[in-house]
Amino acid sequence: MKDIFLVHITLPEIFTPEFYKLIPAQRSLINNLLEKRTLLNYSLDIDRQNVWATIEAISEQEVMDILSTFPIIKHVKVDIHELAFHDSAPIGLPDLILN
After folding, report:
1. Is there a contact between 40 and 87 (Cβ–Cβ < 8 Å)?
2. What was the pLDDT predicted at 97?
3. Class of domain 3-82
């Protein structure tokens, strides 16, 4: 059974040109992980200093394996927290209105 982990990623204070070049590959990977539902949420704060990601995985080691594929991983600090539960609003199609 998979568990849910909240990952807090602290971004570098100064984005170097090298870091900026990694962003398109990072976004592509994130989109892929979201489509596979490995990554449930991915949020960036307005100051562009913190990212929070919710990941579904079997273990913390699997989370680390996923994070190791992030193009930006060498430039960030990561904290992983296993969650007791993770609730979110249901996502679906709007109700049909039959006239």
Report:
1. no
2. 76
3. alpha beta
